[in-house]
Amino acid sequence: MKNVVKKKKRALRRYWISAFFLFLYALIGWLRLQQTLLYWYYFLELGLWPHPLYFAVSGGIIGAGYSLALIFHFARFKYTARYIRFLGIFLIIWIWVDRIWIGIRDTFISLLPITIIITGCTIGLDLLLVRKIEYVKKKSQEHA
Which of 9, 21, 108, 119 places its Cα 20 to 30 Å from the Cα of 98? Predict the structure, then answer.
């Protein structure tokens, strides 16, 4: 009986930690979009590469993707785990492509530690926190 209670507590803790990380990723995406729009003309004056439109679109995609994942998470949609893993893989590939080929070489070295941290957190979210079994409805929940 104690094992069942411990497992439920761990699952509940994992559920809320996952929700926090999903919220954090969504917030980062939306803030990227908002800050790009706020400083749009300043970025144009600086002549940044890539164009500010790239920052706005990528921020919007990250924000919308993880907001949808958070909604799926709270609704316990049955394909949530698969969606979050796909989103995580997409984010990791995009971050590394962005840092290596789109960004400036000098910034790649300075942003390498944070890129590794983001990659590790995303892998942790995808593999350790999000479990498919938590999104499967039990027969008692279907009739309620």
Answer: 21
pLDDT in tens, the chain (144 residues): 678 888 888 888 888 999 999 999 999 999 999 999 999 999 999 998 899 999 999 999 999 999 999 999 999 998 999 999 999 999 999 999 998 888 888 888 899 999 999 999 999 888 887 877 677 765 555 544
Pick from 131, 129, 98: which is nearest to 24 by CA? 129
Burial 54-68 (b: 16+ CB within 10 A, else e): ebbebbbbbbebbbb
CA dihedral 90, 91, 93, 96 (to 10 degrees): 170
pTM (predicted TM-score): 0.86
Residue 53, both tokens: 């439109």
